[in-house]
Design brief:
The structure holds two protein chains of two kinds. Chain A is mostly helical. Chain A is built from eleven helices and no strands. Chain A is elongated and about 75 Å long. Chain B has a two-stranded antiparallel ribbon with strand order 1-2. Classes of the chains: A mainly alpha, B mainly alpha. Chain B: This is ABC transporter permease.
Chain lengths: 276, 325
């Protein structure tokens, strides 16, 4: 309860939470405000924002409503960000837990693989994965998750290294508990808080990675995504720069909200480190 | 000498990592739809099955996958990265042509981010929780959340379209032949916006780390001693605090090298710079898998090199590393 109180005492954390709730509300209400397909033609192309009450944020190069694409784009960004983060954290926890708990050759092998993933630039690996498996919503989400797990794995491993010889683990061992029970039942719950806080960083990066991929037209072209829209707007950048500008602000706000919430959680859970 | 042998040992340890990456990506690319011969046939405008078979045999693509992998690794030892059917040149020379813009861009962005991250980090830490700190920290958060490609596009709109101060893209002006200093200045003016765009997110990261590490070091006993000796504040910060506070920053360069290379893929596409990143993007779009694999190899090599240099700098900044056995 203390942590919740500490969280709400920080104005930045509260602002982040409000922004995040707004983005979530946009994602939920998209179908309600804009029942039509956001990628369907809606009117004349390149209508400037605030010039036509029917299209509050104007229309893009082919006459699709930008506001509708922003609302539906919130769904895609949160979906890809959330699922990719879950995948990355899950792989990271498994790899980090086994490496940290068993040590020895298991640790050696797993850390070599982690190092390989960290040595290869993650965006280059993302390009390779998209080149091989194609760019549908599912493959892009999995690919973003697969390139993002090394950092959580290292974090989990460090936590396990410091916890694995504590008294409560030794007590469990003398009680005859199996390794798997010790890892997931005893150590993991104690190792989890910093990893969960770090998930916000993973999610922020995942949203940025997907939008960059979409901007390069290597993500799923059949969904309304903010990155896709920025890529389209690039063709009319010289005059109708708003087509690219608006979805960029949406990405900025979402990533900012996720980082602020993460930082707020971190400060609330580790009050000793506040201000760092 | 000790420094070199220590860093050299780290370098040797990265060779298995490199081999692991190559084997992994090589096997991954076996799942890709279509091979080099398919790409070549498409370039030639089609052909019959017999020609395709002949070509596969010529390029060793009819062998089993382990044999192909062995061949590839053996050719790599001789620095032969294979042949790019799209560019009609050996992959090594295609990559070598594209390397200078990327290295220039990365060095410039890193210097920009490191220098201003350091300066702003120090200013923020000196005025902790007062308005300069709040302003700098807020800006840092916003920079961190800004998608680089979007920032690049907006910078083009402002500085190239409206103000017309800087060129919107390309590596140099190909309309006019320039030599010497004028050519260098021309290239520099083309690189201003890409450098800012790529460096922005790293500036945000560096200033945050610098601020945290300054705050930590400022509270240590030896700093109090230095102040008690009667040294003025500037002297304490520059001579005593900075050197120790810089260590996490230097570590970060090594950790971020890969991210920066990845970021240059996007930035080079925005500013149509003929660099390695843009080559990576083109080879994905054109399904030039030989080139893609070569880029994977070279970018891993680049990251390893950066880390080697970071090890050297680190040992230089922190004598404890070489003192301990």
């Amino acid at each position: 309860m203390d942590a919740v109180k500490r969280y709400f005492r920080s104005p930045a954390a509260v602002a982040g939470l409000i922004l995040l709730l707004i983005v979530i509300a946009m994602a939920i209400s998209a179908g309600w405000f804009y029942p039509r397909d956001p990628l369907a033609l809606a009117g004349r192309p390149l209508v400037w924002p605030f010039s036509n009450p029917r299209f509050l944020l104007g229309t893009d190069n082919s006459g699709r409503d930008i506001a509708a694409q922003i609302f539906y784009g919130a769904r895609i960004s949160l979906l890809i960000g959330g699922v990719a983060t879950a995948i990355a954290i899950l792989i990271g926890i498994l790899v980090g837990a086994f490496a940290g708990y068993y040590g020895g050759w298991v640790d050696n092998v797993l850390m070599r693989i982690t190092e390989a993933f960290q040595t290869l630039p993650n965006f280059v690996l993302l390009l390779v994965l998209v080149a091989v498996f194609g760019s549908t919503l599912t493959t892009v989400t999995i690919a973003v998750g697969v390139v993002s797990w090394p950092a959580p794995a290292r974090l989990t491993r460090a936590e396990f290294l410091s916890l694995r010889n504590r008294e409560f683990v030794q007590a469990g061992r003398t009680l005859g508990m199996k390794n798997i029970q010790l890892i997931f039942g005893e150590i993991l719950p104690n190792a989890l808080p910093p990893v969960i806080v770090y998930a916000s960083v993973v999610m922020a990066v995942a949203i940025l990675l997907e939008s960059a991929l979409a901007f390069l037209r290597l993500s799923d072209p059949n969904v309304a995504s903010w990155g896709n829209l920025i890529g389209l707007g690039r063709d009319v950048l010289r005059v109708q720069w708003y087509v690219s500008a608006i979805p960029g602000i949406a990405i900025l706000v979402t990533v900012l909200a996720v980082s602020l919430v993460g930082q707020g959680l971190n400060d609330a859970l580790n009050p000793r480190l506040k201000g760092r | 000498m000790r420094i070199l042998s220590l860093a050299g040992r780290r370098l040797a340890a990265s060779i298995p990592t490199l081999i692991l990456i190559l084997i992994g990506v090589f096997l991954l690319l076996q799942f890709a739809p279509g091979d080099t011969v398919d790409a070549m046939m498409a370039q030639m405008g089609g052909g019959d099955a017999a020609t395709a078979k002949e070509l596969r045999k010529f390029y060793g693509l009819d062998l089993s996958i382990p044999a192909q992998l062995g061949n590839y690794l053996w050719r790599l030892v001789r620095l032969d990265l294979g042949f790019s059917s799209i560019y009609g040149k050996p992959v090594a020379s295609v990559i070598l042509e594209r390397l200078p813009p990327t290295i220039l861009l990365m060095t410039a962005s890193l210097s920009f981010a490191f220098f201003f991250g350091l300066v702003f980090g120090v200013i923020a830490a000196r005025g902790v929780n007062r308005w300069p700190d709040t302003l700098i920290s807020t800006l840092g958060l916003i920079f961190y959340a800004t998608p680089s490609f979007w920032f690049g596009l907006m910078a083009i709109v402002v500085f190239s379209v409206y103000l017309q101060w800087l060129p919107p893209g390309g590596f140099e002006d190909i309309g006019v032949v320039r030599t010497g200093i004028w050519r260098a200045l021309d290239i520099a003016s083309h690189l201003v916006l890409p450098t800012l765009t790529l460096g922005l997110i790293f500036l945000a990261i560096y200033l945050r780390i610098m601020r945290a590490s300054m705050l930590e070091v400022l509270n240590l006993d030896y700093v109090r001693t230095a102040r008690a000796k009667g040294l003025d504040e500037t002297h304490v910060v520059t001579r005593h605090v900075l050197r120790n506070a810089l260590l996490p920053m230097v570590t970060l360069i090594g950790l971020q090298a890969g991210t920066m290379l990845g970021g240059s893929v996007v930035v080079e596409s925005v500013f149509s710079l003929p660099g390695l990143g843009r080559l990576a993007y083109e080879s994905v779009v054109q399904r030039d898998l030989n080139t893609l694999l070569g880029i994977v190899f070279v970018s891993a090599l680049l990251v390893i090199t950066v880390n080697f240099i970071v090890d050297l700098i680190y040992a230089r900044l922190d004598p404890r590393i070489t003192a301990e056995g």
